[in-house]
TrEMBL record, chain A:
The keyword Nucleus applies. One of its GO terms (cellular component) is RNA polymerase III complex. It is found in: Nucleus. The keyword Nucleus applies. Component of the RNA polymerase III (Pol III) complex. Keywords: Nucleus. This is DNA-directed RNA polymerase III subunit. Belongs to the eukaryotic RPC7 RNA polymerase subunit family. It comes from the Eukaryota. DNA-dependent RNA polymerase catalyzes the transcription of DNA into RNA using the four ribonucleoside triphosphates as substrates. Specific peripheric component of RNA polymerase III which synthesizes small RNAs, such as 5S rRNA and tRNAs. InterPro entries: RNA_pol_III_Rpc31.
Automatic annotation (TrEMBL), chain B:
Coiled coil: none annotated. Keywords: DNA-directed RNA polymerase, Nucleus, Transcription. Residues 440-513 form the DNA-directed RNA polymerase III subunit RPC3 winged-helix domain. Residues 7-66 form the RNA polymerase III subunit RPC82-related helix-turn-helix domain. This is DNA-directed RNA polymerase III subunit RPC3. Belongs to the RNA polymerase beta chain family. Pfam families: HTH_9, RNA_pol_Rpc82, WHD_POLR3C. Component of the RNA polymerase III (Pol III) complex consisting of 17 subunits.
Length: 292, 600
């Protein structure tokens, strides 16, 4: 075989690939010739050209940019997006998504870590309300201290609650008409507290029912259910506005308490058991062993 | 709106403000105009969070909004302003260099706040002033630490200093007024204005004339709606006292036309810092809402580009004269037209010209010289006049002006009406700059022959291969190779002109041509993409060493990195700083390209 290859290669057409009878199997004999027919490497060597070093003023620019960026990042507005906030296509929120089982568990040293902000803190500065759409006014200035509110009094017959009504039919459908009326009446009487009387009492009842089993810790971030959010809780955003960072509470706990078929709720299991059994008993036990 | 620009914009927002806003912005960009509730559904976020996010985005000027008469508010992304998030570094550097530290503190504050009333700027400023010194975040700040900032003499009088800086920024148009129309898209503004005009429109004209009259009225009203001027044209109770320079009484002494920052030299020359404050209690109304005008940065940058071009062509002394001229013109120059859609070349406003007076120029040059003797820093900080002496142009300066008027560049030209005034015609110069940039890119990617071919085609228009071969003086084989390469890269295009109806290839003429506009758009697109890749790379690199970065950001570690972190961790952080520097520096260079190709 090799002889045949040589004989052919020695022919006149060698090197130009003109005569190429039969299968070429003599790569080992003639590496030069065969290398031209090989496929190109997938990642060929690319000549690297090094860019010019940054000049002084360019460096200045970069540092200015970084400085400003760090100012923004340390400020009240820089907000990260946590996967646990995002609802899926069915409007359900997975509280555990994005949770890191290895590093995510709370630990002592975590308290030094830079806290992640999930909702911007808008209360740190005054705003020029006339540049914002009116539906955002109550978000920006929940206490209605800005003088711009008074100028709008007669023009805006249905402040925040009704205003959010106008935005989506869906919400309007879901809300009983009685509530709407209640809201209007309420707005006429006081301007400082935006909560609807009926909804607020409803909420109070829920809170009572929830009782001490689930402590309503302001700092604790809970998952939220989109359906719920669109429906009822969003109606009174203003109460929550006052405690900056807290994400809207949800009613998942309460539903499961009612025994709606959710027998095994891992979170409840820990939360409920924490105070009674584990802590006290464990502490005693430990104390006992130490003493002993 | 291209894909790569959209990508870049959301990456920029993410880098500056956080993923949350980038998510909202990207959704708005991909879906177009949305109501808040629709946006909440598309973003998979609760409405309340969306409202918070939108509030911040509106404050930063990144989102347009529009409320219909029924009260439905829709939102739309503003990619133009989002792109400008690349530029704060350049802006701050430029402002600090030219207007001093107080001005840069004001600009920092404005950048943080988005838009703010002047009163707020004045009060917050003092606290910001101390912290504005640029610190290199590098742990071992070797190089950048030398960016020390010269302390300003008016340090003991902060109000005066800040007032002066504010005034200076206003005169140069870097700060501009915010109007409600700036939060609407152009189309919305037009519609609103048309409705308004339609209601009040009364005319006796008919037919096309009526239409013309109506259109004129609408244009006028729109102009009024989007007017960003603070100081010129109008003077209302909210405005600054009008300060437009009058060329006719240029010799008047004292000359309050162009108040400049009193810095360094001022004390030597008897400049009283209270001068401007004394007669100016209503200088800027505290309730006037202002924002940073990025379009102005393009003007300043264009000037610096032109000056460096003059330096390259004629030399240092010429460039100094030219710089003086350009600096004189700056306050009066209109902003370059903002067109992100990149219309054809002809649509740009043709004559962005402005005149310069010889006497004023002489003054500036004289100061320039005296200032140079005092210290080596830039001449800009010089006071406007000295003891009322009128300066004559030196013969040397006069010859400089003559040379600058020469072909082919024509950096200057004489005014037709007044023999002692000069005009700078910006649009041909901008085109020249742009072409030079494109040629530079082609030279870097191919070779000098490619540039030669492009230049010939730019000059001659469409050419047959045979004629092209004769003109560029190259052999057919070489020429074809280069033409093919250029066409593949998108710089050249081929047109077929059949001589018969059958369109036989043998009976067809093939014409090569170079379309500068198309090439410009292509390059801009590529640049956007390249910048986006830089930011993506930054993200990847940061993710690789996330744990170390998080550790260095811990509240007990921050500021004491050297003490608390291990040597290896310090090395990693240092390396990351270097990498980020490179990438951001690269982004800055690409941004310069965007300036030249899009904004000039």
């Amino acid at each position: 075989m090799s002889r045949g290859g040589r004989a052919r290669g020695g022919g006149a057409g060698r090197g130009r690939g003109k005569r190429n009878w039969g299968p070429e199997t003599t790569w080992d004999v003639e590496p030069l010739e065969s290398s031209t027919t090989r496929p190109e490497p997938l990642f060929p060597e690319v000549p690297q050209c090094l860019p010019k070093a940054l000049s002084r003023s360019e460096l200045d620019r970069v540092n200015h940019y970084r400085h400003l960026r760090s100012l923004i990042r340390d400020g009240p507005l820089y907000t990260v997006l946590d996967p646990s906030q995002l609802a899926d296509d069915h409007g359900k929120i997975n509280k555990r998504s994005g949770f890191d089982p290895f590093d995510g568990m709370p630990s002592y040293s975590k308290r030094y870590q830079k806290p992640k902000r999930l909702l911007p803190d808008l209360s740190t500065r005054p705003y020029v309300l006339k540049f914002f759409p009116k539906e955002l006014w109550s978000t920006l200035d929940p206490k209605r201290q800005n003088p711009a509110w008074t100028t709008l009094g007669p023009l805006l017959p249905d402040p925040p609650g009704a205003n959010t009504n106008a935005k989506g039919k869906r919400k309007a459908d879901m809300m009983p008409t009685q509530n709407v009326r209640g809201k209007r009446r309420h707005v006429g009487t006081s301007s400082d507290d935006d909560d609807d009387i009926i909804l607020a009492s409803d909420r109070r009842k829920r809170a009572q029912k929830r009782g001490k089993d689930v402590p309503n810790d302001a700092g604790q971030r809970k998952g939220l259910e989109a359906e719920d959010e669109y429906g009822q809780d969003a109606e009174q955003p203003n109460e929550d506005d006052q405690d900056g960072e807290e994400v809207v509470e949800d009613s998942a706990f309460e539903e499961s308490d009612d025994g709606a078929g959710d027998d095994y709720n891992a979170e409840n299991y820990f939360d409920a058991g924490e105070e009674d059994d584990f802590d006290d008993g464990g502490g005693d036990d430990e104390g006992g062993t130490f003493l002993g | 709106m291209s894909k790569s620009l959209a990508e870049l914009c959301s990456l920029l927002i993410e880098d500056n403000y956080g993923e949350f806003y980038a998510h909202i912005f990207a959704t708005l960009l991909s879906h177009g105009r949305l109501l808040a509730l629709q946006l909440a559904l598309k973003c998979h976020l609760p409405l309340r969070q969306i409202q918070h996010g939108l509030a911040v985005l509106v404050q930063a000027g990144l989102v347009f909004h529009h409320t219909t008469s029924e009260g439905r508010t829709s939102y739309e992304a503003n990619p133009r302003n989002a792109y400008d998030l690349v530029r704060p570094g350049r802006t701050l550097e430029l402002v600090q260099k030219r207007f001093g530290r107080a001005a840069s503190a004001i600009v920092t504050q404005l950048l943080l706040l988005g838009h703010a009333p002047v009163g707020q700027l004045k009060t917050v400023n003092r606290t910001a002033n101390e912290s504005t010194t640029v610190q290199d975040h590098d742990i071992e700040n070797d190089r950048a630490n030398s960016t020390s900032i010269v302390g300003s003499p008016a340090e003991d009088r902060p109000d005066v200093e800040i007032d002066n800086a504010l005034r200076e920024l206003c005169t140069h148009g870097l700060i501009c007024r915010v109007r409600e129309a700036h939060f609407r898209t152009e189309a919305d503004t037009r519609q609103l204005v048309e409705e308004k005009v339609h209601n009040s429109f009364r005319s006796t004209a008919k037919g096309t004339k009526l239409k013309e009259e109506f259109a004129e009225k609408v244009e006028e009203a729109i102009e009024k709606e989007v007017d960003i001027c603070i100081n010129f044209r109008k003077s209302g109770p909210e405005n600054m006292i009008p300060q437009k320079r009058k060329l006719d009484d240029a010799d008047n002494i004292p000359n309050p036309k162009r108040p400049k920052l009193s810095n360094g030299v001022a004390t030597n020359e008897g400049f009283d810092p209270t001068y401007f404050v004394g007669d100016d209690t209503n200088f800027l109304n505290d309730s006037l809402v202002v924002r940073l005008n990025y379009a102005r940065i393009a003007v300043l940058f264009r000037n610096s580009r032109l000056v460096s071009l003059v330096t390259a062509i004629y030399g240092k002394s010429f460039s100094r004269t030219y710089e003086a001229i350009l600096h004189q013109l700056e306050p009066d120059l209109p902003d370059p037209k903002e067109n992100i859609s990149l219309g054809p070349e002809q649509e740009r406003s043709p004559g962005t010209t402005s005149e310069v007076d010889e006497a004023l120029l002489a003054q500036d040059l004289a100061h320039h010289e005296t200032y140079k003797e005092h210290s080596g820093s830039p001449w800009r900080r010089v006071n406007g006049y000295v003891n009322g002496i009128k300066h004559q142009l030196t013969p040397e300066a006069r010859s400089h002006l003559e040379v600058l008027c020469q072909e082919p560049y024509r950096f200057l030209s004489r005014s037709l009406e007044y023999p002692d005034r000069y005009v700078v015609e910006y649009s041909p110069l901008s085109i020249h700059l742009r072409n030079a940039e494109i040629f530079r890119i082609i030279f870097a990617r191919f070779d000098k022959y490619a540039v030669r071919i492009i230049r010939v085609l730019l000059d001659k228009g469409k050419l047959d291969e045979k004629h092209l071969q004769e003109t560029v003086l190259m052999s057919a084989k070489e020429l074809r190779q280069i033409l093919a390469m250029l066409q593949q890269a998108g710089y050249l295009e081929l047109q077929e002109v059949p001589r018969e109806a059958q369109r036989q290839p043998s009976r067809t003429i093939y014409l090569w041509f170079y379309d500068p506009d198309r090439v410009r758009k292509m390059l801009i697109e590529n640049t956007y993409k390249c910048m986006a890749r830089c930011f993506q790379r930054m993200k990847v690199e940061r993710d690789k060493i996330r744990s170390t970065i998080e550790k260095s950001e811990r509240s007990d570690v921050k500021g004491k990195e050297e003490k608390l972190l291990a040597r290896a961790e310090l090395e990693v952080l240092k390396g990351w700083r270097r990498k980020e520097e490179w990438l951001l520096g690269e982004v800055g260079r690409l941004d310069e390209l965007i300036f030249v190709l899009r904004d000039f």
